[in-house]
Amino acid sequence: MSDRLIALFTDFGQRDAYVAQMKGAILTLNPQARLIDLNHEVDPFDIRGAAYLLEASARFMPAGTIFVTVIDPGVGFARRPLLLQTQAGKQYVGPDNGLFTSVLERQGLQAAYELNKSAYFREPQVSTTFHGRDIFGPVAAHLSLGVEPKDVGSPVTEPFTLTSTPPHWVKQTLVGEIRHIDHFGNVITNITRADLEQVRLGELLMCTIGRQAYAVPFVRTYAEGEAGELIALINSDDAFELALSQGNAAAYIQTEIGHQVHLRLGVET
Question: Is residue 266 predicted with pLDDT exceeding 80?
Answer without folding.
Answer: no
